[in-house]
Design a protein that fits this description.
The complex is a heterodimer of chains A (425) and B (320). Chain A starts with 20 loop residues before the first helix and ends with a helix. The N terminus of chain A is likely disordered. Chain A has 14 helices and four strands. Chain A has a four-stranded mixed β-sheet with strand order 2-1-3-4. Chain A folds into two domains: 230 residues, no CATH class; 111 residues, D-Maltodextrin-Binding Protein, domain 2 (3-Layer(aba) Sandwich). By secondary structure, chain B is an alpha/beta fold. Chain B contains eleven helices and 13 strands. In chain B, the strands form three sheets. In chain B, strands 5-6-7-3-8-9 form a six-stranded mixed β-sheet, sandwiched between helices. In chain B, strands 11-12-10-13 form a four-stranded antiparallel β-sheet, sandwiched between helices. In chain B, strands 2-1-4 form a three-stranded antiparallel β-sheet, with helices on one face. The radius of gyration of chain B is 22 Å and the shape is elongated. The two termini of chain B are 31 Å apart. Classes of the chains: A mainly alpha (425), B alpha/beta (320). Chains A and B meet through helix 2 and helix 8 of A and helix 2, strand 5, helix 3, helix 4 and helix 6 of B.
C-alpha cells in the first residue's frame, strides 16, 4: 500500500491524546461492555469538558447561527424600525388633513366658465385641494386614487355669466358665486373611505356657501394628545407584527434548512431528546425577542414620543408569550416541509391573513361582525390587543388575560403538534 | 499499517455487535434490501461493498435505527430498536451520514461541542480535533472547510461520543487521494482501539484495506461474504487478464486454454481469471490468431475485490 502521507505524523495510539476519564472506561480500551451495561450508571457520566448540557449547547448553536447571518439581523432589527420611520413620517400630524378632488372642465375654459368659477372658489379653501381636469383625465385620476372625488359642474350653468359682485368676501371662505344649484354631480366610489370623507367635506362647503343654515349649534374640539395619534396605534402593532415575522421565519427556515442538509437525520441518530431540539429553537428566540421589542419601542419613544403607559415587566411577559406562540407556529409549519420553497409558501399562507386581519395598521374591529370570532382568536390579534392595552392604555396584565391565554394556547398546541409530526429525515 | 489481511485480528471478539436476519426493506415496488443476513462482531471492521443502489445505505440506516425495516430481525448490541431502550442504545453508537452538511456558520469546535453535549460520555472536543488533525481549523467556520476537512469533521462529531459502534456511510466518496488516506488512518485508529465499525463503500481498495470482513451487495442481496483475501482467493486465480477484441472468440474456447480458470465477456470485452499469466498469455495470443481476430487492448493485474464483483455480476462496481 503506497503511503502518500508517510512523512506526516499519523494518529496512532501513542500520539492520540489521553482519553478523558469517561473514555478510559469506554470501549476504546477494548473493554467493551455487554448489552446489559448500555447507558449503565457505572460509567462516569461526566467528562472534563465544561458544558455538557445538550439544551444549552443546542440553543447556543441556534443563537450563533442567527447572529452570524447578517441578512437575518437586518430583517429582524433594522427593517421594522425602517417601517416605523416610513409609516410614522407618512402619518405624522401636519395640521388638518385635506381632501383631494378634481373639477371636471366643461369645455369652455376661462374664469367665466362654471368650472373656472368653482376652481376659483375652491382655491380659497384650506381643507380642499382641487385640480381642474378634462373628463378623461378626471376619470383616470379617480381610478388611480390621485383624487377621491370628481365634481362635475351643472351643464346648464355653463350658460350663466359671471357675477363680479359675488366675489366680495365677508368670511375667510369666499362664498360661491351664484351657480345653478341644480345638476351638480359628485362622482366617487362610496366604498372608499377617503372618497366618502371628500364628499362630506365638499358637500358641506358647497351647501353652506349656497346659503344653507345649520340648525344645531355645535362646537369642534380638536384632540391631539400623545397616546391617541395614529403612530401611537401603530407602534404596538409593529412590535406584534415583528414578533410574528421573526418568530416564524427565523424558526421555519432554520428547521427546513437543517432538514434539507440532513442535519436533522444525523441528530435523530444521537441520543438527543427531541423536545430539547425543538425547545432550543424556542429558547433562542428569547434573546432576540427582548432586543426586537426594545428596538421598536425605544425608537417609537425617541422619534415620536410614543411612551409605554403600562408596566415594562408586563410588556415583557406579553411579548414573551406572543413570541413563543409564533415560535410554536413556526415549528409546526416547518414540521414536515422538505423544501425552502414549500415552507415559504406555508409561512405566507399562515401570516398573510394575520397581516391583513389582525389590526396592525388599523383596528381589527373594522372588519364585518361575522368575521370577528375568527379574527379575535388569531394569535396576532391577541398580541396586538394586549400590547396596545399595555403600551397605549396602561392597563394591567389581568385586563389582557384572555389575549394571553389565546396566545399560550396557540403556542403550546402548535409546539406539541410539531413535536408529534416532526419529520427528521 | 498494511492492508488488513489477517482473518481474525486479535481484538475482534466472539461477541456479536450487530446482527440481522432476513432483513427486508421495500420502497414502493423497489426492494432495497432483499432478505439479508449479517453478523458483525465486537471490534470488527465490517464493510458493505457494492455499487450505488445496492441497498448498502438502507441496510446501515436500519442498523442505525433511522429506517424501520419491513421484515426481519435486527439486533444492535444485543437489543432491537423500538424496545423502549433506544436512547440508551444511541448513547453507544455514532453515525456519519453520506449527505450531512453541517451548519456553515458554526466553527469546527462549536459543531463538535454541540454533538458532544448530546452524549452522556465522550471525548473533549479539543481532543477529538487533535485526533482528526483539524487543530488549525479549530475556530474556522465549517463553511470554509474543504471536502476532506468536512468529512473529518463528520467523523470527529461521531468520535466525540466515544462510541462502541461507528457507522460510516461512504466516508471517502468524493475525496482526493490524500484526504482519503488521512481518513483511512483515522478509521484504523478507532478500530485499533477496539471500536466496532460498519462501513459502506463502493471503493474496493477501501474495503480491502480497512475491513476485516466484507459483504458484497448487489440488488439488495448479499452475494458474497468473507475476508477480503478469502474473497479474492475464491476466484481461484491470482491474476486477471483483460482484453478487447476486434473479432470474435467463443467463451468456451477461451476457458479451455491452459491456466485459465474463468471467462467473462461482454460486447467484445473479455475478462479471464488465470492461475498463471505466463502460461495463459501465449495460448491466448495463438487462439486469437486462429480466429483471425485482432487484439485491441490487453492488461493484466493481480486479482482484487473489483474482480470478485465482476466475476459475480458481470458488471463493474463503478458503472454497475
Amino acid at each position: 500500500m503506497p503511503d502518500v502521507i508517510g512523512a506526516k505524523p499519523r494518529p496512532s495510539l501513542e500520539q492520540t491524546p489521553p482519553p478523558t476519564d469517561a473514555v478510559k472506561t469506554g470501549p476504546l480500551t477494548g473493554a467493551a461492555p455487554g448489552p446489559e451495561a448500555s447507558g449503565a450508571p457505572s460509567l462516569p457520566a461526566t467528562s472534563r469538558y465544561r458544558s455538557v448540557n445538550p439544551l444549552l449547547e443546542l440553543t447556543l448553536a441556534r443563537i450563533r447561527e442567527f447572529v452570524r447571518e447578517p441578512e437575518a439581523v437586518f430583517w429582524v432589527f433594522v427593517f421594522p424600525v425602517l417601517l416605523a420611520v416610513a409609516l410614522g413620517i407618512a402619518f405624522r400630524e401636519t395640521g388638518p388633513a385635506t381632501v383631494q378632488v378634481a373639477v371636471e372642465a366643461d369645455g369652455r375654459q376661462g374664469p367665466g366658465s362654471s368650472s373656472g368659477r368653482l376652481m376659483e372658489w375652491l382655491e380659497g379653501r384650506s381643507d380642499i385641494e382641487a385640480v381642474l381636469l378634462s373628463p378623461e383625465e378626471a376619470a383616470r385620476a379617480l381610478r388611480t386614487g390621485r383624487v377621491a372625488l370628481v365634481l362635475q359642474p351643472s351643464p346648464s350653468a355653463a350658460a350663466a355669466t359671471g357675477n363680479p359682485e359675488a366675489g366680495e368676501t365677508v368670511s375667510p371662505r369666499p362664498p360661491l358665486p351664484d351657480l345653478d344649484s341644480e345638476g351638480l354631480v359628485y362622482r366617487y366610489d362610496p366604498t372608499r373611505p377617503d372618497s366618502r370623507v371628500a364628499r362630506l367635506v365638499l358637500d358641506d362647503a358647497l351647501q353652506r356657501s349656497m346659503g344653507r343654515e345649520d340648525v344645531a349649534r355645535v362646537r369642534d374640539e380638536a384632540v391631539a394628545q400623545a397616546g391617541a395619534r395614529y403612530i401611537d396605534f401603530l407602534i404596538p402593532g409593529l412590535v406584534g407584527l415583528n414578533l410574528m415575522g421573526s418568530g416564524m421565519w427565523g424558526l421555519g427556515f432554520a428547521v427546513v434548512q437543517a432538514r434539507t442538509r440532513k442535519l436533522l437525520k444525523l441528530l435523530a441518530a444521537t441520543p438527543m431528546r427531541r423536545t430539547h431540539f425543538l425547545l432550543s429553537f424556542m429558547l433562542s428566540r428569547l434573546i432576540f425577542l427582548a432586543l426586537e421589542v426594545v428596538a421598536v419601542v425605544s425608537f417609537g419613544w425617541l422619534a415620536f414620543g410614543v411612551s409605554v403607559h403600562g408596566s415594562i415587566l408586563e410588556l415583557g411577559v406579553i411579548s414573551l408569550v406572543g413570541s413563543m406562540s409564533f415560535a410554536g407556529l413556526g415549528l409546526l409549519v416547518a414540521a414536515r416541509t422538505r423544501t425552502i420553497e414549500g415552507v415559504s409558501g406555508l409561512m405566507n399562507l399562515v401570516m398573510l391573513p394575520m397581516w391583513l386581519l389582525s389590526g396592525t395598521f388599523f383596528a381589527a374591529t373594522r372588519f364585518p361582525e361575522f368575521w370577528q370570532p375568527v379574527i379575535q382568536v388569531l394569535p396576532l390579534t391577541a398580541l396586538n390587543d394586549a400590547l396596545r392595552a399595555n403600551i397605549n392604555e396602561g392597563l394591567p396584565l389581568a385586563a389582557s388575560l384572555p389575549d394571553v391565554l389565546v396566545m399560550a394556547a396557540w403556542g403550546s398546541a402548535s409546539f406539541l403538534l410539531a413535536l408529534r409530526w416532526f419529520r427528521w429525515q | 499499517m498494511l492492508a488488513t489481511a489477517s482473518t481474525q485480528p486479535a481484538n475482534v471478539s466472539e461477541e456479536v455487535a450487530l446482527s440481522c436476519r432476513s432483513l427486508v426493506k421495500r420502497y414502493g415496488e423497489v426492494v432495497a434490501v432483499d432478505g439479508i443476513h449479517l453478523e458483525v462482531r465486537m471490534g470488527e471492521c465490517f464493510g458493505l461493498l457494492g455499487p450505488n443502489g445496492a441497498g448498502k445505505t438502507t441496510t446501515v440506516e436500519i442498523f442505525e435505527g433511522l429506517t424501520i425495516p419491513d421484515g426481519g430481525r435486527v439486533e444492535v448490541l444485543g437489543q432491537g430498536w423500538g424496545e423502549g431502550n433506544d436512547r440508551a442504545l444511541r448513547e453507544r453508537l455514532a453515525v456519519q451520514l453520506q449527505e450531512t452538511q453541517f451548519a456553515d456558520r458554526l466553527t469546527v469546535v462549536e459543531t463538535i461541542a454541540m454533538f458532544r453535549s448530546l452524549y452522556k460520555r465522550g471525548w473533549e472536543p479539543d481532543e477529538v480535533i487533535r485526533l482528526v488533525e483539524l487543530e488549525e481549523k479549530r475556530d474556522a467556520r465549517v463553511g470554509k472547510l474543504s471536502g476532506g476537512q468536512k468529512q473529518r469533521l463528520a467523523i470527529a462529531c461521531a468520535l466525540a461520543a466515544a462510541p462502541d459502534v461507528l457507522f460510516l456511510d461512504e466516508p471517502t466518496t468524493g475525496l482526493d487521494p490524500q484526504a482519503k488516506l488521512q481518513l483511512w488512518d483515522l478509521i484504523e485508529t478507532f478500530r485499533s482501539r477496539g471500536g466496532t465499525i460498519l462501513l459502506t463503500t463502493h471503493y474496493m481498495e477501501e474495503a480491502s484495506r480497512l475491513c476485516d470482513r466484507v459483504a458484497i451487495m448487489d440488488h439488495g442481496k448479499v452475494i458474497a461474504l468473507d475476508t477480503p483475501n478469502a474473497l479474492v482467493e475464491s476466484l481461484g486465480a491470482d491474476e486477471i487478464v483483460e482484453f478487447s477484441l476486434d473479432g470474435f472468440v467463443a467463451d468456451d474456447r477461451l476457458s479451455r486454454l491452459p491456466g485459465v480458470r474463468g471467462v467473462r465477456s461482454r460486447d467484445g470485452n473479455y475478462l479471464l481469471t488465470v492461475s498463471s499469466v505466463a502460461e495463459a498469455l501465449p495460448a491466448l495470443l495463438a487462439e486469437v490468431e486462429i480466429h483471425q481476430a485482432r487484439l485491441v487492448g490487453l492488461a493484466t493485474h493481480t486479482a482484487t475485490l473489483e474482480d470478485v464483483f465482476v466475476t459475480l455480476t458481470g458488471r463493474k462496481l463503478r458503472d454497475a
